[in-house]
Write a structure and sequence with these properties.
7 strands, globular, 143 residues, 4 helices, 7-stranded mixed β-sheet, Rossmann fold
Length: 143
């Protein structure tokens, strides 16, 4: 499923729809160039999930945790130099969450560590809009 997003309000509407279909245990890969809107999208999802804490990019910490129902893990692997570095941060907790939802920016850097059932969301920044493509397996949950 593809969305054309021209405004922040449109992004928030898409985020509300997706937040409403997410389930504990879901792991989502966010792909897109720098400035595509990956972190902004996670911020909108968190707000739609009722998380009131300020959501920021975990570029330097690699992982941020936000208390919610369910909780949300937010990873940014941009600075990861090798997939094996994930072992140092206990990647299993984030990649196989039982009672949380995980968003992973720059997930391609995790290579073979990524779970097989990760949902992919692509965000492409075009001239005046963003094109967001939702994994068909996740889109099937949408009303």
């Amino acid at each position: 499923m593809k969305f054309e997003i021209a405004t922040i309000n449109e992004l928030k509407k898409v985020a509300q729809t997706i937040a409403g279909i997410l389930q504990a245990g879901d792991v989502l890969s966010l792909r897109g160039d720098l400035g595509a809107g990956k972190t902004t999208f996670v911020q909108a999802i968190a707000k739609a999930m009722g998380i009131h804490e300020r959501v920021t990019s975990p570029t330097f910490s690699l992982v941020n945790y936000y208390e919610g129902t369910p909780p949300l893990w937010h990873l940014d692997l941009y600075r990861l130099e090798a997939p094996e570095e994930l072992e140092d941060i206990g990647y299993e907790d984030y990649f196989y969450p039982e009672n949380a939802i995980t968003f992973i920016e720059w997930a391609e850097k995790a290579d073979y560590y990524l779970p097989d059932d990760v949902y992919e969301i692509d965000i492409i920044h075009e001239e005046n809009t963003r094109a967001m493509t939702i994994d068909p397996r996740l889109a099937r949950r949408m009303p």
